[in-house]
Amino acid sequence: MNAFEPRIIAFCCYYCAYSAADLAGSMRLQYPANIRMIELPCSGKIEHNMLLTAFEEGADGVYVAGCMEGDCHFLKGNVRARKRVEYVKKLLDELGIGGDRLEMYNLSSSMGPRFAEIAREMTERIRALGPSPLNKASTRIKKDGERA
Amino acid sequence: MIVAEQKPLAEIAENIMEAQKVLVVGCGGCVTVCLSGGQKEVDILATSLRILRKKEGKPIDTATETLERQCDKEYVDKLAEKIQAADCVVSLACGVGVQYLSERYPDKCVVPAQNTKFIGGTTEHGVWEERCGLCGECILARTGGICPIIRCSKSILNGPCGGSQDGKCEVNPDVPCAWTLIYEKLKRQGREDAIYEVFPVKDWSKSRDGGPRKYVREDVLL
Ligand code: SF4
Ligand code: SF4
After folding, report:
1. How far is B45 from chain A, CA to nearest CA, in Å?
2. How far apart are CA B105 and CA B84, in angstroms?
3. Among A27, A44, B120, B159, which residue is least crowded by beta carbons within 10 Å?
4. Has residue B43 got a pLDDT over 70?
5. A48 contacts in chain B (CB < 8 Å)
6. Is A133's CB within 8 Å of B55's CB?
C-alpha cells in the first residue's frame, strides 16, 4: 500500500498561532510532521498571490492561522485574511486545484492543543483529498514502511 | 475612472491557446484603482495561468510588466523587448489598452483579461458605481449634479417616470430614483422650479450614434 504524505504550508500569525505552536512544543504535544510553518507579523499580511504561489511551488494544502476574531493585534487583520482566503478558495476551484485545500483558522496563543488539532485536521483532510493535481506525477507517494 | 472586471480564468486561458511564453501586462491607471488590473492582479493572474498549464502538463513561462498607462503610446513603446520574447500578450487594461498594445505590436496576439464595464467611482472600498453615460453633452449643471442619463434606469430627460416609490427606482428598490435625487438637490439649493424645465430631445450624434468620437485640440498639435 502507498501512503501519501501531504506537504502543508501554514501561514501563522506571530501573536497567536505561532505562539500556540511554541506552546504545543513546550507541552510536548505531538502533531503531524507534514506542516511547514511560515511566520507572519499578522495574518492580515497574507496576500492572494502568496497563497497561490505556495500551491504552485508544491504544497498539497495551505492554511492561514490568525487570532480569534475580535482579538487581532492590528484590529482587523484576521478578518481581512479570511476574506482573502475565501477569494483564493474560489480561484483554486477555477484552477481545478480545489478550494478545499485552503483553509482559514482562528486560535489564541494559549491554545497549544488546538494548534496540534488543527495540524491533524488539515493533514487528515489533505490526505483524504490526495496529492494536489499539480503534484500528481511527483514521486512523493511513498511506499509503506518508508520513512517520512 | 474606467471600471473593469476580470474575465473568468477559463476564458483567458482558452484565448492564450497553446502559447508557451506569455507576457501579462497591467496598467497603473484606472484598473489599478478599481483593483482589477494593477501589479497585484497581474501577479495573481500570471501565477494562476502557470498553475493551470502546469496542471495540464503544458507548463508556460510568464513575464510581467505594469505600465504607467496602457492608453498612452509612449508607455506602450517601452514593451518592445518583452513583447518580442512573448508568444502571446495578456492585457489587464481596459479595452483601450488592449487595442493600443495590439495596434503597436500587430504581429502579436493580444488577449483581453477584462470586461470593461463603465465610468464610475468608488463608493466604498471594493464597491464601484456607474456615474456617467458618456453622452457627449453634459447637463449636470441643470440637474443638480445628478446624471439622469445613467442614474435613471430609463435614461429619461424629463422625469420622474411615475414608477418612483419612496425615493427608490421601480426597476430596483436598491437604486435611488435619480429624478427624486435631482428634485431634492434642486430644492436644497432653492431652485426646485428648475424641475419644470423641459429638456428637448437629446442630440445623440454626440454620443455613440455618431460613430467613434474624436477630440482634437488644434492649439496643442505639434
Ligand atoms: S449628462 Fe452626459 S456627460 Fe454628463 S454625467 Fe450624464 S452622461 Fe455623463
Ligand atoms: S423611478 Fe426614477 S430612476 Fe427609476 S426609471 Fe423612473 S425616473 Fe428613472
Report:
1. 9
2. 9
3. A27
4. yes
5. 40, 44
6. yes
Q: What percent of chain B has pLDDT over 70?
A: 100
How far is CA B168 from its chain centroid? 26
CA-nearest residue of chain B to A55? B51
> From CA B52, how far away is CA B56, in angstroms rounded?
6
pTM for this entry:
0.90
C-alpha cell at B160: 420622474
> Among A59, A67, A84, A81, which Cα is nearest to A9's?
A59
Instruction: Give chain A's contact residues with B (Cβ, < 8 Å).
Output: 47-49, 52-53, 55-56, 91, 94-97, 133-134, 137
Three cell numbers at A35? 506542516
The listed CATH number (3.30.565, 2.60.40, 3.40.50, 3.30.460) that belongs to domain A8-137 = 3.40.50
**From start to end of A14-140, where are the E strands?**
35-40, 61-66, 102-106
| B124: Cβ contacts below 8 Å, ≥ 6 apart | none
- State the Cα–Cα distance between residues A4 and A79, nearest whole angstrom: 33
pLDDT of residue B209: 87
Residue A138: pLDDT band with limits 50, 70, 90: low
What atom of ligand 2 comes closest to residue B159's alpha carbon? 7
Give the whole-angstrom CA distance, residue B112 versus residue B115: 8
pLDDT (mean) for B83-105: 98
Question: What ipTM describes this predicted complex?
Answer: 0.85
Which bound ligand lies closest to the C-alpha atom of B146?
Answer: 1
DSSP letter (8 states) at residue B180: H
Q: How far apart are CA A10 and CA A79, in angstroms?
A: 17
Chain A positions in Cβ-Cβ contact with residue B43 (cut-off 8 Å):
49
Q: What is the CA radius of gyration of chain A?
A: 15
Model pLDDT, residue B208? 86
